[in-house]
Write a structure and sequence with these properties.
4-stranded mixed sheet, ThiF/MoeB/HesA
């Protein structure tokens, strides 16, 4: 036991690092930096499958022709030219995973990553979406949304806000490994996105969304194009909408029950009442902070359509503090929300959907 305890004490504390490091070996100083990193850390795994990526790139560039192995080699030689294969593309270091991955550089990477989106998303739309910024507040439900947005490449920048850390009880709906217990939910989501697509810019707000940082969250580095609001706190739920309305930024929310998605188009309807008018006009935000959960419930109820929730969710709410500690969330509902919100955000950003309202994808009503 003593040996195990000593080994545990010697472990390095988990960092909040979620930003990959890029090395382009055509630059002598970056070649030196990478080789120094690898020689100093021989445990780092190196993944070099650049040739398979280049062959894929050649394939999608010649969709009308079935190339022979010889033709692939000719195209490959033309692409590489006087460079070495090691100088092609970029080497990406993931410090939290002790991995270096060799990939094609940004333009070719995006072409490959989005090639099977076409023509459900047109090429000019893919380019347009690259310029967009989406903010996600609350990463229990929002983590699935953020990852789906990244997978579909619906934006070029994501801002993630959550103060909470992964607990084992979260892992009925957050897709991550048990080694991430006590790691920030935002960091876990950001790392997964970076490992999927290191060229998507991700910023994490590890204190969550607060009255103090909302300005930076919404406008730092350019205004958000869409806010996805998935937080539990009623005060931030309201404050974030006040800010979104002032900046004319649309808000999308998934309630994780009956597939309900709520949309507020403050960009098209700047005078629209917050949450469709379900927030009392005379609400005292300072007084709200001092209320208990039970006292907040009458205010919270219409905001998230508690009266229209499924029978089992209503029953669950009555059991909080008795047989359960908080409301339940299922992986199937969280994944559905990721799909529904991503699709909604994409169509908002491409001017294909212009409405506000509440919409349901209720499996119990559809599959009967």
């Amino acid at each position: 036991m003593r040996e195990l305890e000593e080994h545990i004490k010697q472990q390095q504390p988990e960092t909040d690092n979620y930003t990959p490091v890029f090395y382009r070996l055509g630059k002598a100083e970056e070649y030196t930096a990478l080789t120094s990193l690898l020689s100093s850390n021989p445990h780092i795994r190196v993944h070099d499958h650049i040739v398979s990526q280049l062959k894929e790139l050649i394939k999608i560039s010649n969709p009308t022709k079935r190339l022979t192995p010889e033709e692939y080699e000719q195209h490959l030689a033309a692409y590489v030219g006087e460079q070495t294969l090691a100088e092609i593309g970029v080497w990406v270091y993931y410090p939290w995973a002790d991995r270096v991955v060799h990939i094609v550089d940004e333009e070719d990477f995006i072409a490959l990553r989005t090639s099977r989106n076409q023509h459900k998303i047109m090429k000019e739309e893919i380019e347009r979406l690259r310029t967009k910024k989406i903010g996600v507040i609350g990463l229990s439900v929002g983590g699935s949304i953020a990852l789906t947005i990244a997978m579909e490449r619906v934006c070029g920048e994501l801002r993630l806000a959550d103060f909470d850390k992964i607990e084992l009880t979260n892992m009925n709906r957050i897709r991550t490994g048990i080694h991430n217990i006590q790691v920030s939910k935002a960091v876990v989501a950001a790392r997964e996105i970076a490992e999927l697509d290191p060229f998507i810019k991700v910023r994490c707000f590890l204190d969550g969304a607060t009255a103090q940082n909302l300005d930076e969250f919404f406008t730092g580095g350019g205004n958000l194009d869409v806010l996805v609001e998935e937080c539990d706190g009623i005060d931030i739920k309201i404050l974030s909408r006040i800010k979104a309305k002032a900046l004319q930024i649309p808000v999308v929310m998934d309630t994780n029950d009956r597939g309900m998605v709520d949309v507020e188009r403050f960009d098209l309807e700047p005078d629209r009442p917050l949450l469709h008018g379900f927030i009392p006009a005379d609400l005292d935000m300072e007084r709200l902070k001092g209320l208990s959960d039970a006292e907040k419930l009458p205010i919270f109820r219409p905001m998230v359509a508690l009266d229209d929730m499924s029978a089992r969710m209503k029953y669950s709410l009555s059991e909080i503090g008795k047989t359960i500690t908080t409301w339940p969330q299922l992986a199937s509902s969280v994944v559905l929300g990721g799909a529904a919100v991503t699709d909604t955000c994409r169509r908002i950003l491409l001017d294909q959907y212009k409405n506000s309202g509440r919409y349901y994808v209720d499996f119990e009503q559809i599959f009967v």
